[in-house]
Task: structure prediction
Amino acid sequence: MTPSDIRNVIIDILSDISPDSDLSALDDSVALREQLELDSMDFLDIVMELKKRYRVSIPEEDYKELASMDSTVAYLSQKMVNVGV
Amino acid sequence: MIRSAKTELPESQRIVITGIGLTAPNGDSYSDFRHSLLEGRSGVSEYEIRYFGKTLAGICKFDVTRHQARKDARRGTRAGSIGIYCANEAIRDSGLDWANQDLSSVGVYVGVTEHGNVETENEVYELKGYDYDTSFWSHHHNPRTVANNPAGEIALNLKITGPHYTIGAACAAGNAGIIQGLQMLRLGECDVALSGGVSESIHTFGIFAGFASQGALATHTDPTKASRPFDTNRTGIVVAEGGCLYVLERLSDAKLRGAKIYGEIAGYAMNTDATDFVLPNPQRQAECMNLALSRAGLIAEQIDIVSTHATGTPSGDILECEALREVFGQSEKTFFNNGKSFIGHSMGAAGALELAGNLPAFDDGVCHATINVDDLDPACHLAGLVQNQPREIGGVRYILNNSFGMLGINSVVIIQRI
Result:
């Protein structure tokens, strides 16, 4: 997957988790928590959905990499390089 | 001598209903539900659920997002959503100044028949798609399935910081929730009690399969005819979802704020058969009704309407009728009806919902019917059974509400017009 594909995946997951949020105005460089009403259970939803959809496992020590869209895409670009769209 | 024990209590110990919020398969408000009952409108329809297949059920159609964000509905449970809808509607109906309410003085007491089966079945079903690798098991499972979940979701939604919990009481749970609220108000544990019951049971295949295996699940070519307590051709239970929560307050507080008062809880009782897992004991049921009457300072002849528990099972209806004849056999003024004949059995919500279906009789003097009695089972004969069409019975002062459940749990609530 390209970084753009991965961003689309995250947006799709976020739209499920937080269906009333406006994701079109998301600033990729700013922490997701500062822009959306997300708590720790929501971040676990992101982790679980990536695991279910793409069999991507994210160890707990790497959860901090999911802070912003930019950091998430950068982190996942390494792990999902061989994952098809 | 006929007397009312309640009038001897100080107003701070007399508990009244000041708000009602409900959802039923044939109405999402107190007035719509009553209208359907008087019109003879069933809420039962065709339904299909995984593994079990096609069956019948009472399905609620309330707007979840009216009082709950979609994000919270996704995270929570169906029982929680039902509870949130009912709680918000009840508070709105009560006229309480919620913005200035001390939320630490509000208690949430929600009766449930069971909780967690829906979520557990869903997770196991999902897990099958991952070859039962439990690392795919949802982190939402535990908060969804803890027994206090439906009450806790209400507290979260309304920012209530007083006590919240559920009362597990099989199909006696709706009454049990009301009784718990009354007791907590009398003890001073809260100033406002949100009390009643909810059920999301139609979303678990297990309840349908269990009743079918037990030979107690209703079938009929016409869904609206499937729930037919007291009829010779009854075949069992129609499972329904629903909810009904009351705002309960002390009479002194209700008067102080000029609240609309639907009625006073004049008496109540709970007891146990201690005889069988599923088969009711009419003697214990009669004892429960008599205890409630005694606590209310009433005799059976003073009760205008009895809302029966009857679920449409061959033996359960007969046994309740035995108990009713023992308690009310001498009463010429008592009428009997049944809410499940319209919507099916809404389990933990049933007792609370069926009471709400009868409370308007205080104003309109009409006893709604039990429908689908095409051929009355002689073993279910009750002199005052209101069959198929509502009946004008004049001034209604007392309503007795029966709600019984598995493991021999019995509950009775008596409401008095004031």
About this structure: The interface with chain B takes residues 16-21, 37, 41, 44-45, 48, 51-52 of chain A (CB under 8 Å).
